[in-house]
Specification:
Radius of gyration: 20 Å
Shape: globular
CATH superfamily: Luciferase-like domain
Strand content: 15-25%
Distance between the termini: 5 Å
Amino acid sequence: MKNIGFLSFGHWNPSPHSATRSASDVLLQSIDLAVAAEEVGADGAYFRVHHFAQQLASPFPLLAAVGARTSRIEIGTGVIDMRYENPLYMAEDAGAADLISGERLQLGISRGSPEQVIDGYRYFGYEPRPGQDHADLAREHTARFLEVIEGKGFAQPNPRPMFPNPPGLLRLEPHSPTLRQRIWWGAGTRATAEWTAEQGMNLMSSTLLTEDTGVPFHELQAEQIERFRKTWADAGHAWTPRVSVSRSIFPIVSDLDRAYFGREGRGSDQVGMIDGGIARFGKTYAGEPDRLIAELAADEAIAAADTLLLTIPNQLGVDYCAHVLETIVRDVAPALGWR
């Protein structure tokens, strides 16, 4: 069995060919797509976070709205760039969104992806300290965030407060008691996956890895997952972690599907450059359901993960994206034992 959700980058563009022509369009359609995904039997609605771009950027209002409109599916991010975040303010927002949804938040965080602007986090008021780089900044913010969502008091109460305080040091409110075990780190390398396990976070692995050993993408990603789970066991954490992978999968069951994605299935893994380093990108899967079933059965990383996030072309609109999700849940997942 696998949890199957969608991952939306939340693109919008004023082009007449786009179903999302404004920020308002993409926000409202994201909520509608989450509702539709729940109705067709999917398990999760996840959203990318990119600043200074015509994409989704402020996740917590959206997550709270999705949580209020749905009742079953997980809601999450993939991923929030921690270089930009105030850890305490984020803890309050995350706690509120999680409680509104009935504790269904699955919060993916990380160092983030290549930015639209140079060192964009500096515009948000954050600078690496002397001797740090931007990755250190993200991990420092993460450590503080993880600390405060544990719910332990740390703030000295005012002796003359506006309202009565409970005894002892105060924690941030609202507090969600189970959120700490639903934090995921987006890891782009095998070493980062091991670090993720040491910190006690779930592993979120996407359609690219920022390293290349010459083996197919799914094999390298499967090794990443294996190393994560071994390190987790060695660390002795008291709970079982989860692992997600992202894939672009498009069943071809209509002429419209064929027009959009009929040529995508001919592709393969790609090797490129990200931030000056080599990276390996996973292929797009596209074809008739029988073909997809055979190809996906050979994907070692999907087999190793418990959660599959399907990247969706949000600019094609809610109805088409819901159609893709429904076709995978109905025509592909059962044959692979995911349902």
